[in-house]
């Protein structure tokens, strides 16, 4: 019954999707940034990767599994211009109701900025920040289906301008362990503002309908992932008419239909190589990111590409990722995953079904 209700929710979402605002016109766009090194290395978006990293369930609650009981993800990001990002997430499995829960926070600090009046007089300093706190729950349906829901509280503070909101994510995953593949469908950031920044009209949240497929090869240490995003709207290509006119690109824009661009801007490709059972190498390519950071005919370097490495010990996972947003410039991300019950006791991990 619960699974059927979830399907009905997705059908309702599809009927309402066209009402969502596109691109940078939405509020709380920090919700679209990657929260873990593995996700960053996979291209910034991935909802189907077959892994034991609870951090990926932050964006798709259907990826929560009983084996993630007491697993905790701790991440530190160093963005450009001194921006800091901290992420914490932990899971808990309740055997009596066959449900896996998770709680997490993603916090962005933009440092100290002088606060001035209209004439430039310094009135003090402000510390702008954004954060989201969320609770998730996931269950299994049959042998291969998993579904989950996430509730979010969002807060944004820029000096005297503050806003808060509520949102929800819904995810469904189909996992075929016999053939080593998994597919997921997720509707993210459905909700609205409780309080606007200036008391004016409420803005739209960065809604996203995503589909992902991951396949691990049976006779090679490789896994491939294909992620589609912004499925509710085909044309997400940004067209700056003023810039095109000034640079002489407007005529080309009129003559081309950009079918290739419009399709692949929805696609993220990723691959993982398992060197051993304890070391994995990850690489991703985000076509939309590369195209949007294109500087006309100048070289783009590795813009849109990302890579990472994970070292997976029995009691701890250590991950590092590097992602490129500017030519010859990148940002780094570090993360640790550990299972608390390995350090503080079993925590009731085993249940009557023998899940671990």
UniProtKB/TrEMBL annotation:
Keywords from the UniProt entry: Signal
Signal sequence, start to end: 1-19
Keyword Signal part of the UniProt annotation: yes
Domain of life where this protein originates: Bacteria
UniProt entry tagged with the keyword Signal: yes
The name this protein goes by in its record: Penicillin-binding protein
Organism: Niastella vici
